[in-house]
Specification:
The structure holds two protein chains of two kinds. Helices cover 73% and strands 3% of the residues of chain A. Chain A has 15 helices and two strands. A two-stranded antiparallel ribbon of chain A has the order 1-2. The radius of gyration of chain A is 25 Å and the shape is flat. Chain B has a domain at 184-315 and 385-434: 3-Layer(aba) Sandwich (D-Maltodextrin-Binding Protein, domain 2). Chain B has helices at 20-35, 42-46, 62-71, 84-93, 133-136, 191-194, 222-233, 246-261, 272-280, 291-299, 328-341, 345-351, 360-363, 369-375, 405-409, 422-434; strands at 50-55, 75-80, 100-104, 120-121, 158-159, 167-168, 174-175, 178-189, 213-216, 265-269, 286-289, 313-322, 356-357, 385-386, 392-394, 412-415. In chain B, strands 1, 2, 3, 8, 9, 10, 11, 12, 13 and 16 form a ten-stranded mixed β-sheet that branches. Chain B has a two-stranded antiparallel ribbon with strand order 4-7. In chain B, helix 8 runs parallel beside helix 16 and helix 9 packs across helix 10. The relative contact order of chain B is 0.15. The chains are: A mainly alpha, B alpha/beta. The interface between A and B is large, with 35 and 36 residues.
Chain lengths: 296, 435
């Protein structure tokens, strides 16, 4: 048999070739399902269009509009505004809650219970969670009734629902959890002995948080930030419902184009969005070594 | 006629795809057919045909599907597209996955020069002579011409020729589709919260209701409503508000943007449920609505009226078309199904939801005198009016808001629309939402 002859001194595949062979299947999938469609989207963004048709004629106006219009500026300003505000709330909140869970709870059982409790709202589907905001924030909702009952306001506050405020509330509710999860993951990896040593050396709790925990948790927060960024930059569902379709963001404007069968502007906006999101993610990754974070 | 009056029905077992037995059977039938080419064998052959009807939740009603399967010798499989975009995209990109479809005629702007839809010969459709002149000629029963502002039915009812590439405003032998449902929409209002009569579209943009009105999200209905209001206010004079020029679009968007900045609009609604919820929760006092949505608000015990405005109604129209790839038996069955749709039963079903059918004389025998009087003639109900599912939706003594079919359909101010300047309008609509 041929195999029995070759097996003792089997020619080993050179390591470089082995690596190439190992990545080839994934690379092919990536090429077919990501690179090629992206290339098509890129091509479409340069074509002329009307009434659900794309004509094979060069039409640069789409890109001129996307790159120079006040609309693009307004869309990105609005989206970044949401991003900054939501981050400024969820990052400290996530850090604080994770800190409490990791360092102030002695019972593992209670910690598991509380972490589960954080996830309870996510057991229901997204649409139900969104509709549930109306009885709370609506004109005749709980908040308005309470405020009116307490005599603090004379007539219901309209801006609680179907407004930018409502969008922000929903984002914070949804995105605090990933912030907690990523921060908690990083905190769990800090050896208790390090904290103990600091305490023995006379560090105050604030000093421990500032000089030991925060630097060690920074990669976790960076990953949490990536999740928040991609969620907000790509969101079209929350902003549509909570904003009563009256708030236009980068994602919403792409959806509006798609619903009107205007593919080239949707394509151009998508490519710009992809570049922006990738730039943010790449710069955030400088703060976190993903491989290290994923290792348990 | 209520559901319980109907004869007990049994739905035939559903056949999907090809079974081995099915193949054998059709093979045998084909062999028999070639030996005895008699028309009676048609019934044998069509048993294995499945007609896929793609629609949206308002048209792919399980009760109608079951009745079709009971009445027809072949299988009807209704499939529901989740939204208008998916619906049109599937028809344009995978036409062969569909046999027949129903859609708002505003979509038809996307189907010129595509060769996706099949021209239906007038002679193949049984009820063309009984179809209302609004669809066959673009005129009201008294002979006067119906409004052509927006996407009037006559604008995409006939193909210019059998190649089915362009529409013709004058009758030809080739139908784009079979007229199905239509209605006259107007403002739904909360009389309990407004406390005075609302008679003009201008009220939609009246500062008195700032923060308490909603628009439909999108250019084909939202802009049409706004144009009705702006014209009624005397703010803008349009040549054709259903097909605006760029200057008219600019003026319209500018006024709307200013109003939006003042917080005039409470919300924009995208679907049926949202419009019901906005109205029922009291978030909104007046907004453009669909008839069944008003009914839904009322069945919750909340007062909501749907009277016509003095400037007229906003009309809409849904037709049923077959796909161009059909041939042979499948084509025959598709035409048969389209004929069945307007033979009365299905028309009566949707009429109980507040829509109209295009062949009223077929519908009449399937409704009680009371139902016919209430829905089509605008007469006070002599007994309780039930919805298609047998639930009481209106008490005896009440008559339909707006009156009879021609008091409502005979007074259309604008039709739902997709304008020639759609590209520019959508671009400006983006500015409006971003403002």
């Amino acid at each position: 048999m041929l195999s029995s002859q070759t097996s003792p001194s089997r020619a080993t595949i050179p390591p470089k070739l082995a690596s190439v062979l190992q990545v080839t299947p994934m690379a092919l999938v990536f090429l077919a399902l990501v690179i090629v469609p992206l290339g098509l989207i890129f091509v479409v963004s340069f074509l002329d269009y009307n009434f659900a048709q794309v004509f094979p004629e060069l039409y640069l106006e789409t890109w001129v509009d996307v790159l120079t219009s006040d609309l693009t500026l307004a869309l990105y300003l609005k989206t970044f505004k949401f991003l900054v505000i939501v981050w400024a709330i969820t990052a400290p909140l996530g850090f604080a809650i994770a800190y409490f869970l990791a360092f102030h709870l002695r019972s593992n059982w209670l910690r598991t219970l509380l972490v589960t409790a954080i996830a309870i709202p996510f057991w229901t589907s997204g649409p139900i969670r969104m509709v549930s905001w109306v009885p709370l924030l609506g004109r005749e909702g709980v908040v308005n009734q309470t405020l009116m009952g307490a005599g603090l306001i004379d007539e219901p506050l309209g801006w609680l629902m179907y407004s930018e405020f409502a969008v922000l509330v929903a984002y914070v509710q949804m995105l605090t959890m990933p912030m907690i999860a990523t921060a908690l993951n990083s905190m769990a990896k800090i050896p208790p002995s390090v904290i103990q040593a600091a305490r023995d050396a006379g560090a105050s709790e604030w000093q421990i948080v500032r000089d030991i925990i925060f630097p060690l948790v920074r990669p976790g927060l960076a990953i949490g930030t990536i999740i928040v960024t991609t969620a907000i930059m790509g969101d079209v569902v929350m902003v549509k419902f909570m904003g009563g379709s009256q708030v236009n963001t980068v994602g919403m404007s792409i959806i509006t184009d798609l619903n009107a069968f205007m593919y080239p502007p949707a394509a151009a906006k998508s490519i710009l969005l992809l570049i922006v999101v990738l730039s943010i993610v790449v710069s955030l990754l400088r703060f976190a070594d993903i491989r290290k974070e994923l290792r348990s | 006629m209520t559901k319980s009056d109907l004869p007990a029905t049994k739905t035939p077992p559903r056949r999907r795809g090809l079974s081995r037995r099915g193949l054998l059977k059709s093979g045998a039938a084909a062999a028999a057919a070639s030996a005895f080419p008699a028309p009676m064998l048609w019934a044998q052959n069509i048993k294995d045909v499945t007609i896929t009807h793609l629609g949206q939740s308002y048209s792919t009603i399980p009760e109608i599907e079951a009745k079709a399967n009971e009445d027809l010798g072949f299988t009807v499989d209704m499939q529901t597209a989740p939204d208008p975009t998916t619906h049109v995209n599937r028809l344009l990109t995978q036409p062969k996955s569909v046999h027949v479809t129903d859609m708002p005629n505003t979509n038809l702007k996307y189907f010129t020069g595509r060769g996706v839809l099949m021209p239906v010969n007038v002679s193949e459709y049984k009820y063309w002579d009984q179809t209302l002149s609004l669809f066959t000629k673009g005129t009201y029963p008294d002979g006067t011409e119906a409004s052509k502002q927006g996407m009037a039915p006559i604008k995409a009812q006939y193909w210019a020729d059998e190649n089915a590439q362009e529409y013709s405003l004058t009758p030809t032998d080739y139908l784009v589709g079979v007229p199905l449902y239509y209605n006259a929409d107007t403002l739904g209002i909360r009389p309990d919260l407004i406390g005075r009569p609302i008679e003009s579209w201008a009220e939609l943009l009246n500062p008195e209701f700032s923060g308490r009105v909603a628009l439909q999200d999108g250019v084909s209905i939202g802009v049409a409503d706004a144009a009705m209001a702006l014209e009624a206010m005397g703010e803008i004079t349009y040549g054709d508000k259903g097909n605006m020029t760029r200057e008219e679009i600019d003026k319209t968007i500018d006024v709307l943007t200013a109003l939006k900045r003042e917080g005039h609009f409470r919300s924009f609604w995208t679907n049926f449920d949202q419009s019901v919820q906005l109205m029922a929760s009291g978030e909104v006092l007046l907004q453009s609505m669909w008839s069944p949505a008003v009914t839904e608000v009322r069945t919750r015990g909340i007062d909501c009226t749907y009277k016509g405005m003095k400037e007229g109604y906003r009309g809409w129209y849904i037709m049923m078309s077959a796909m161009n790839h059909l041939e042979g038996l499948e084509r025959d069955c598709a035409i048969e199904y389209m004929n069945w749709m307007n033979s009365g039963w299905a028309g009566a079903f949707i009429s109980r939801q507040g829509f109209y059918n295009s062949v009223p004389e077929n519908v009449k025998p399937f409704m009680t005198e009371n139902e016919w009087g209430y829905w089509y003639e605008g007469q006070p109900a002599t007994e309780d009016i039930l919805n298609p599912y047998g639930k009481v939706m209106e008490k005896a003594g009440v008559s339909r808001d707006g009156g009879s079919i021609w008091e409502r359909m005979g007074n259309i101010g604008i039709w739902n629309t997709v304008m020639d300047e759609d590209r520019y309008l959508v671009r400006r609509w983006q500015d409006f939402i971003a403002a």
